[in-house]
Amino acid sequence: xxxxxxxxxxxxxxxxxxxxASLDAGARYSVAAARGARITLEDGQGRSREVIDGMASWWxxxxxxxxxxxxxxxxxxxxxxxxxxxxxxxxxxxxxxxERLVAMAPGNLQHVFLADSGSxxxxxxxxxxxQYQDACGKPARQRFLALRGGYHGDTFAAMGICDPVxxxxxxxxxxxxxxxxxxxxxxxxxxxxxxxxxxADELERWEAQARxxxxxxxxxxxxxxxxxxxxxxxxxxxxxxxxxRVLREIADKHELLLIVDEIATGFGRTGKLFAVEWxxxxxxxxxVGKALTGGYLSLAAMMCxxxxxxxxxxxxGSSGSALLHGPTxxxxxxxCAVACASLDLLTGPGDPRxxxxxxxxxxxxxxxxxxxxxxxxxxxxGVKDVRVLGGVxxxxxxxxxxxxxxxxxxxxxxAWVRPFRDLVYxxxxxxxxxxxxxxxxxxxxxxxxxxHGG
Length: 454
Known about the structure:
This protein is an alpha/beta fold and 454 residues long. Helices cover 36% and strands 17% of the residues. It contains 13 helices and 18 strands. The protein has helices at residues 2-12, 56-59, 68-80, 92-104, 118-135, 156-160, 200-217, 242-254, 306-313, 333-347, 358-374, 403-412, 434-452; strands spanning 30-35, 38-42, 48-53, 111-115, 143-147, 180-182, 188-190, 196-198, 221-226, 230-231, 237-238, 257-261, 285-288, 300-304, 383-389, 392-397, 415-416, 423-426. A 7-stranded mixed beta sheet has the order 4-14-13-12-9-5-6, with helices on both faces. Strands 1-2-3-17 form a 4-stranded mixed beta sheet. Strand 5 (143-147), helix 6 (156-160) and strand 6 (180-182) form a beta-alpha-beta unit. Helix 4 (92-104) packs parallel to helix 10 and helix 11 (358-374) packs parallel to helix 13. The longest helix is centred in the C-terminal third of the chain and has 19 residues, at 434-452. The two termini are 36 Å apart. It is found in: Cytoplasm. It catalyses: (8S)-8-amino-7-oxononanoate + S-adenosyl-L-methionine = S-adenosyl-4-methylsulfanyl-2-oxobutanoate + (7R,8S)-7,8-diammoniononanoate. Catalyzes the transfer of the alpha-amino group from S-adenosyl-L-methionine (SAM) to 7-keto-8-aminopelargonic acid (KAPA) to form 7,8-diaminopelargonic acid (DAPA). It is the only aminotransferase known to utilize SAM as an amino donor. InterPro entries: Aminotrans_3 (IPR005814), Aminotrans_3_PPA_site (IPR049704), BioA (IPR005815), PyrdxlP-dep_Trfase (IPR015424), PyrdxlP-dep_Trfase_major (IPR015421), PyrdxlP-dep_Trfase_small (IPR015422). Its cofactor is pyridoxal 5'-phosphate.
């Protein structure tokens, strides 16, 4: 097996690009199997290790690998048809999924656009906002108000609303439309007792700046875009729910659309079904993805209110009434069928927001387990902060993380992680057991201590 793995790793290097890596970077491990919250890694040197996937494959495999319910849903749909075009046609999985999303969503989000991926759902949301303003007789509103520290995807319009300086897309700034950015919101912590802790004076200063910047640019803005409460790839930054209420007030005052990017935070990850619910704020547009299919297939959705859809549908603007986007694999039946099964697993019977909902109990257990498991890391000299929100656990360092070394030691201690910036973090599958959470915590603590100083 080790010879085959070594050959596979060699064949990969120089052939395949990996995310945010050079062509010759290759991969350190190959995956031989995956089941539950665990993946089996082989390193080409005859070593095989079963490790806990602290990444849930970039936050998507919430129900674990090889889930029988999702497997059955995929098999059943394949036996019928795996794909059909969505132009002029429809099918039961797409309609059922849209109905389910509307029933779950916060506020009055009643209309659904099914997209290929999270980035594409953001692109569609931005297009919709521009067409909306045009249909309202305000074609000059061509820019967006976004937060520093935000990340919304790798496609061009999405890149434009990511952090323009500290984000991952600064090299492409000349090719993206220049948007308007608010300062990064002040940091917050949610304590084990459920309290939100943050600097009140700092938040007051941020609010004054936000209102001033918005007023200055209001006539050219179509909407406000944010990741609610948790900025993910921009630094696992948690901010006070009050920020969302301020953004809602700004949007209402200046007739902007509030667009929330719930791709990483949706479906329970932060402890609410959707993170915007921490502020009891209703968005005009919402994007979801990642956990939507339980990590089985790429699928996302953009949802909007009747106010938005109705104005666009009037056709009074120069762009007409059509929402100008249409992916080849839009509404893919296989992905939609698996997504419906995934929502079944998340909610269980009854109200998806009830304390008895499956996701609610799972994420509450993750939060308790991660708080206990990561607490020892707080004593390490190299650690700046430890924070937990729902099923997200973060160890922040005083220096940029040495990714290869931390990954190696974590694997040796039974965990797969993908650190970045100054962060060693986990967003594990919801099905992780208490023992698996303890292993994650001890592995991360060991890795940080060995590599960055105990």
